[in-house]
């Protein structure tokens, strides 16, 4: 089975919602999913039903939690790492270190990374790279 890396960047809400859409589809197909939250912005995620215990939610609360990310791949078919910019701004992780983690995770899991910033190095390793921008006053 081929696993892909998705890199969604731009508007924080839109990138995360896109990742959550993929999570919901995966759960609907009986896949095991891990959501890694890096801030308190999306607390509502914890209310997603954990059907058949196929969903785990992990909150990164301190720098030491980063080292656990690469060890979590035994359980998951899909991993969503939300808003990596929080970790980078706190200097808890570098893009290069994140790439090492993602490439290890990709061996066993599909990986989605969301960010409000574009990171060329992440785009280079991603199988899918999408930019999201919120648009106002759209009329249909």
UniProtKB/TrEMBL annotation:
Gene3D superfamilies assigned to the protein according to its UniProt record, in alphabetical order: P-loop containing nucleotide triphosphate hydrolases
Source organism of this protein record: Candidatus Heimdallarchaeum endolithica
Protein name per UniProt: Uncharacterized protein
SUPFAM superfamilies linked to this entry: P-loop containing nucleoside triphosphate hydrolases
């Amino acid at each position: 089975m081929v696993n892909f890396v998705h890199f969604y960047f731009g508007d924080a809400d839109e990138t995360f919602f896109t990742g959550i859409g993929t999570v919901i589809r995966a759960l609907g197909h009986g896949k095991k999913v891990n959501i890694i939250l890096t801030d308190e912005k999306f607390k509502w995620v914890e209310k997603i039903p954990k059907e058949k215990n196929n969903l785990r939610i992990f909150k990164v609360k301190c720098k030491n939690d980063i080292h656990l990310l690469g060890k979590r791949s035994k359980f998951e078919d899909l991993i969503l790492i939300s808003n990596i910019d929080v970790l980078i701004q706190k200097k808890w992780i570098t893009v290069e270190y994140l790439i090492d983690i993602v490439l290890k995770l990709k061996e066993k899991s599909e990986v989605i990374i969301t960010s409000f910033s574009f990171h060329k190095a992440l785009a280079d390793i991603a199988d899918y790279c999408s930019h999201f921008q919120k648009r106002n006053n759209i009329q249909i």
